[in-house]
Every structure is written in structure tokens, then in C-alpha cells.
């Protein structure tokens, strides 16, 4: 067999192993190691490449952003800022039919601007938004679906761990990735709110049950209270994102400053003690180690693809049949939608990017824009069965036994469709992602 055929067989074997339940980094690393061994008939070469992969992952300065922003997101969540921003947005939107759903989207967007975590958003807003919507006689599928759909905003609105991972793998600037994520994040948030408004008028029974009426929240706040609750979150956003965009702070320094400020706010609110602080540190370590393991395995996978010549062969195939940019984008989107039924977002990024990067670079596309497309495409997998991590988090967090996992997936389906529409718009108009870049 040719190296290309062996490479393709290894990719299929890896997907099969993942589907059978093998831990994703193990599948990536093991298949890549064995394939390189077979291709070069040398056990020492994959060992040497493994050492290089580990060293490259650990020693990259930009990798420090992952534990810092992860810790900041955990601390901000423990400080209760998710509940505060939800109360603020609920006060603004409650008069509109479907307004509590719109408030959930707005709150998730603001919360994402300081946490960058879809899982944290799904967990927080399942506890605060779903009970509120159920109390106001909203449809249960809509209630959990809007939380699932809006929770993915944490993956695209900076600071985002997925944008950082892409920046590391594609060797792009983290600051540029953050800048490129602003307009797409706002677009996706606005598209969700518009979709809720349209559904409330054209498909009202999906949004609210019969007899539901708009009622003011029990904790309706004055303008002064809104301002007081908003200031800490605004301060964090200005510190983190403002520091990066003005050039005063590097992304690593911004992560450190945000984590420190979040910790100060949590202490000032009396929301954290030594035990919860230690738990946040441990959880940060677990998440960081898992991401590091995944990046190391993906580095081996990338080297295996290069040795097998898979990206070059695909490029030659496209050139032979005169398939250009549009065909590459169709292949990319279809592959990400397929992988989204099996894998988490980080895994999709780390599998797709090494495969397509050598193909899209000769086409002259902006690699920062390409990163935004990959991240949003991979995000759709958070809402699709059978994996749908955000949907599983919501089901495991919610205490209502009448809401099944099927209800969560069905409720999230319209929001996955909205994401796909926004993705197509961003593919057609790359300027929307790159206009803020220097």
C-alpha cells in the first residue's frame, strides 16, 4: 500500500476507535504512533516525534492562556456573576413574548465575554434560567433549548479556549483570534434573539404554552441596581479584552489580570473560601491537563498526516478536478457536521485543522478567518446527538425529571440551524471576521 492509503486507513481507524469509546487523545496518539512506525519502519522516529510534540505543547508561551482563562471562568462562575447578568438582562427583555429566552441569550453572551466556557454557561443558566421560564409557563423544550443554544457562545466570544487552541495549532496570534471573534459572536447572539422573536410569532406553541402571559420578574430591579450589578462584569471585560485590544496586555497577562480580578470580586462577595479556591485550582489543573494531552496527541496526528502525504494528496485531487474554494468549504462543513455527532469541539478542531490547513493556505485564505469558521462549525456539534456535550450538561444539571435528554436535543435543534446559517454567511463574507484585524 502507498503511504497515502495507509494514512487514510489510519484516519478511519481513529474515527472507529473513538466511536467505540476509546479516549480521544489515546486514539489520536496511538494510531498516529503506529502509523508513523509502519510508514518509516522505525520505532525510534515516532518516539522522537512524541518527545517533540510534548515539548512544543508545554513550552509555548501562548499555552499559558488556557489555565489562566479557565481559572478565571471558574472563579467568576463561583462569584455568582452569571446569576447577576441574567437578572439584568431579564429586567430588560421581560416585556417581550419570548423575552426570558432573549434575556438568556444576552446573559450568555455577556457571561461568555469573561469566562469563554460553554460548559460553565450551560451549567449556570440551567440553574437560573430554566426554572424561571418553567415558572412563567414556557415550553420545556424551548426553555432547555435556548440555554443549550446560547451556551455555545462561550466558544466564539473572546476570551475563548477554542480560539486559543486553534491559535496554538495553526500558529496564529491569540490576540488576532480574539479580535476576529467579536463580530461573529455578536452576529450569532443577534441571530438567536431574532430567531426567538420570529418563533414567538410564527410558532408560538414552541416558545410558550397556552395561557402563558408576560409577567415581570419577581426581582425586577431599578436602574441603579442594574448599574451596580453590571459594573463588576463590565470591569472584567474592560480589563481582559480592553487590555488585549489596546496592546497594554498580552493575552497571557490579560488572563492573569482577569483571574486576579475575578478572585478579588469573589472574595469581596464572600462567595469563595479556601476549600472552593482549592477546588477551582484542581479543576483548572484537570481541564488544562486534558487539553494538553489532546494537543500533544493532535501534534502527533498532524505529523503523521504530513509523513503519509494526505493533505498534499487531497490538494492534488482538488487541483486535478479543478475544485476550488467552494468545494473545500463544502467538504470542511460536511466533515465538521459529521464529526460533531461523535466528538467534542476541541477534538474536532485538532483533527480538522492539520488536515485542511495545507489545503487552504495555497488558496490564499486568511488563516484567522479560517479559524473562526472551524470553531463555529465545530460548535454545532455541541448541540447535535449523540454526543452534544452542552445538552448532556444541561440534562445532568437540571432537577426536573419530566425533561428528558430528547427534549434538550429537540429544543436545541432550531438553534443549531441558526448557527449553520450564520456559518454560511461568514463563509460568504470573510470581511465580517477580519475587519477588526490590524
From TrEMBL:
Belongs to the TRAP transporter large permease family. It comes from Pararhodobacter oceanensis. GO terms for molecular function: transmembrane transporter activity. Residues 11-430 form the TRAP C4-dicarboxylate transport system permease DctM subunit domain. The chain crosses the membrane at residues 6-39, 60-80, 100-130, 142-169, 175-199, 220-242, 280-301, 321-339, 346-363, 369-394, 415-437. It is found in: Cell inner membrane. This is TRAP transporter large permease protein. GO terms for cellular component: plasma membrane. The lineage of its organism: Bacteria, Pseudomonadati, Pseudomonadota, Alphaproteobacteria, Rhodobacterales. It is a multi-pass membrane protein. It comes from the Bacteria. Part of the tripartite ATP-independent periplasmic (TRAP) transport system. It holds the Pfam family DctM. Keywords: Cell inner membrane, Cell membrane, Membrane, Transmembrane, Transmembrane helix, Transport. The complex comprises the extracytoplasmic solute receptor protein and the two transmembrane proteins. The keyword Transmembrane applies.
